[in-house]
């Protein structure tokens, strides 16, 4: 691929110039860029930017990839970069990546640039493009979806982390014959960022919730009905919070924090697991701190979650499971309209290698109460 200017709606892709150096430094020295692009020098200097313009970017084209400046079509000023790397000619495959200057974020620059370079790559013989992001980089994953890339999973330890160690990377892929436009999300964002009935608020689980989530899921009352039994580690809780946005964007799990609408206090957690997208079925689950039980919060949570699932996700069916002895959880489900559907013998792992039965409850759109 040879460098040539690509004009598209909203951005211009062009070769780098030496008068881009100051903006390249501003972009590559930015803390957010440094956080997710582990290979960048730190500190990033003017000398690094000059080497990129004179050596790094031209070398990308020589190696069969690409490295473009993303510029404002009106002023030609640098807004960011987009490029192709790690070409695999025998597979007609490459990896696409980008960064955007802080003052140009939130304007669709990365999405427009990614779409433009992907289209150009496909017309030049590439048939598969991969886009890799850190698990916690939700903003980049939204760009991937908007540019038509589909989630394919997580590559464990695929990236070398700055300062040592390795990090997991999510994989997003677009093929040359994929339909145009954004990839449709199975799990949409919450309307207005939250669900509420005036007493209970559900919002997306965030990393800052980890202290409360660890306290919740290591409390004896919650561990008594946890599957598998026992306490999660703090590392597991942190990893869940860091990856919650990615799980949601990938259409797998919508994990939420339950808040008291008046005080804002954390009352518990809940989630919707989209276990059978082809059948329109998902599972829901919930946990409350003991202090918030017996006040209707669990039932309200289930109703809010179910209504969102039916009206916004488009589910045809919800199901939930409980241990047979967990009568309180059974009453919560029945008050929301769930119906008992049966007993699955030895479905769940128990303590010391034993197995536990699970009751199954189902809810159809017309069953929802309240």
UniProtKB/TrEMBL annotation:
Chain intervals for the UniProt region annotation (Disordered) = 222-241
Q: What is this protein called?
A: N-acetyltransferase
Q: Which InterPro entries match?
A: Acyl_CoA_acyltransferase, GNAT_dom, Ribosomal_N-acetyltransferase
Which ranges does the record mark as transmembrane? none
**Keywords for this entry?**
Transferase
List GO molecular-function terms, semicolon-separated. protein N-terminal-serine acetyltransferase activity; protein-N-terminal-alanine acetyltransferase activity
Lineage, top-rank taxon, reads Bacteria
Where does the N-acetyltransferase domain start and stop, copy by copy?
A: 11-178, 200-367
Entry's Gene Ontology cellular component terms: cytoplasm
């Amino acid at each position: 691929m040879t460098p040539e200017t690509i004009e598209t709606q909203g951005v211009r892709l062009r070769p780098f110039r030496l008068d881009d150096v100051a903006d390249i430094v501003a972009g590559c020295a930015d803390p957010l860029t440094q956080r997710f692009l582990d290979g960048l020098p730190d500190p990033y200097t003017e000398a690094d930017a000059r080497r990129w313009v004179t050596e790094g970017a031209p070398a990308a084209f020589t190696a069969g990839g690409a490295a473009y400046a993303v510029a404002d079509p009106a002023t030609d000023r640098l807004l960011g970069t987009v490029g192709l790397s790690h070409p695999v000619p025998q597979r007609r495959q490459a990896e696409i990546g980008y960064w955007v200057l802080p003052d140009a974020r939130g304007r669709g620059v990365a999405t427009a640039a990614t779409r433009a370079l992907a289209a150009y790559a496909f017309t030049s013989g590439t048939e598969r493009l991969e886009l890799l992001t850190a698990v916690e980089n939700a903003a980049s994953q939204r760009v991937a979806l908007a540019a038509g890339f589909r989630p394919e999973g997580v590559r464990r330890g695929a990236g070398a982390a700055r300062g040592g160690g390795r990090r997991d990377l999510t994989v997003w892929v677009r093929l040359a014959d994929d339909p145009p436009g954004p990839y449709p999300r199975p799990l949409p964002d919450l309307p207005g960022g939250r669900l509420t009935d005036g007493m209970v608020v559900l919002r997306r689980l965030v990393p800052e919730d980890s202290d409360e989530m660890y306290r919740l899921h290591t409390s004896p009352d919650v561990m008594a009905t946890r599957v598998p039994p026992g306490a999660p580690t703090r590392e597991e809780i942190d990893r869940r919070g860091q990856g919650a946005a990615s799980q949601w964007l990938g259409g797998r799990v919508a994990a939420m924090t339950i808040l008291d609408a008046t005080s804002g206090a954390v009352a518990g957690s809940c989630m919707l697991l989209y276990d059978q997208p082809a059948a329109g079925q998902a599972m829901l689950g919930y946990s409350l701190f003991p202090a918030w039980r017996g006040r209707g919060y669990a039932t309200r949570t289930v109703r809010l979650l179910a209504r969102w699932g039916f009206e916004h996700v488009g589910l045809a069916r919800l199901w939930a499971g409980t241990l047979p002895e967990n009568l309180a959880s059974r009453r919560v489900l029945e008050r929301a309209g769930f119906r008992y559907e049966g007993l699955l013998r030895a479905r769940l792992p128990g303590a010391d290698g034993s197995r536990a039965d699970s009751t199954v409850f189902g809810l159809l759109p017309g069953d929802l109460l309240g």
